[in-house]
User: Fold these one by one.
Assistant:
Number 1:
Amino acid sequence: MSPFLADLPVEAILGITLPLLIGGAVAITALITGHFRKSQRDDMEATLKMEMIQRGMSAEEIERVLAARMDNGFGFSRGRRGRWGANCEHQRRGAEAVPR
């Protein structure tokens, strides 16, 4: 053991390492669940697209249905990167265009 750690009491070592371990576990869990949710959402979207294609819907109709489905009613919609972002005027025109 290093001389620095030998001088510290066990409570201090636990007080430092335990929050780090818990924080790491929370971060890893958040990453895993985020990827799982994205995978499920993409799977449902692909299934919906296949069903609409089998029904003979045109590309414009499919696009319209998906655009309506992605809007959650709170002004948020899924962006190009697959993340949820605010669908606001200032983001479409630039942040400097918003009156303060």
Note: The longest helix spans residues 10-54.
Number 2:
Amino acid sequence: MAGEWAGRRAIVLGLGHFGGGLGVARWLLSQGASVLVTDRASPESLAAPAAELAALGARLVLGGHAGVDFTATDLLVVNPAVPADAPPLAAARAAGVRISTEIGLLIERWPGPVVGITGSNGKSTTTSLTHAVLRAAGAPAELGGNIGGSLLERLDEVPPRSIAVLELSSFMLELLAPAGLLPDVAVITNITPNHLDRHGSFEAYKAAKRAILGRARHAVLCGDDAVVREVAAGWGGHALWYGRRGEMSVNTAGDLVDRRGWIVLDSAQIPLPGRANRLNLAAATLAAAAVLGDEVRAMRALPAALAHYELPPHRLQTVGTWQGVAWVDDSVSTTPESTAASLAALGAGCVLIAGGHDKGLDPEPLLTAATRHARVVLLVGEQGPRLLRDLTRRGVTAELVQTVPAAVVRAAQLAQAGESVLLSPGYSSHDQFTNYEQRAAVFREHVLLQARRAAPGPARHADATG
């Protein structure tokens, strides 16, 4: 059925691997647009979404942009991974072409309030927790943004006042800010150096994160983070702080507590490992309270929200346990700070698998946490040699094993009953993998292979769960 884009031309630059490009291309086609999709990735790596779009009538140019005229279109939809100064965008701007993103098109059309969550670490967990709390409180809410998929195709189905809960990356915010397409309620979980290879400097990265406050009426902010406090200085909206001395925090027993120190939710009722994840729950509760305009309603919804809650995949996710050793997938960790938080959540006595592609980050948080919590560190990828040198100087037992499969084999030899083997790389996967999901899949495959080798026969490896 033809819609607002009937008879108009659109180019989708960057199909990507997480569903946003596919979703916006499908939506544009459903609206009657003539759609061309182009991506530098090979046709083989994008075979499934490419085949689907071709069947729907899209034209595709993959493996590069040969022959694509970025000035001959009514709309250029840019994948957030494409740098803002990329030549196709410069050509389109010079020709006066409208440039947008999947998430920008969604926010423009969303019929209710928008909650946007960003941060260097914890934003996916906080986003999914906010969505869970709102749903448990009886509010219509939809989950989207960087957490995967596209909500554009749901626009005709959602109630008029439905709440969009969106994970927003710095890349997304960099493209959304100039158009003012920003959330009503903003959440910043933390800000540590990240994506410096894209943004060029920590100052530019901070500016991209601060953009989320641009039109927000309420902001939920981590008071424990000095950079968040710096970024929010001078902002004129209603701030809800969490963490120590905030509206909500986590005490030493792991309970969720309010500003007076009164227990909102007992530790035993919170199925989330580590203080960082419980602070994410505090942020989610305050975000839900802000958009509902009712703090009590949000807090009362917590038990129901957590009753069946599971962390998003690849975030301290146990792949299986055998011979007393737990194998834990934290492949989403792409910063030293996130690995440090995961090590703290597991506690001392683990075999850590770390390393990957450097984004210009300081490894100190990973080095400090590994010194404190890891018995052995197995190193992979581009950053393996540098980490080996730095850890060895600190007296940490470390080995360079190069690849994730080799790390799994070596970890199986080294790990002792009662320990965990933790894949928490602290770096991007792009030196050896397409994305962190592929890295996790390889880890899982080889963990289960080791389980079968260690205990042949179904009865003897029944605890190697999936």
Note: The first helix runs from residue 20 to 30.
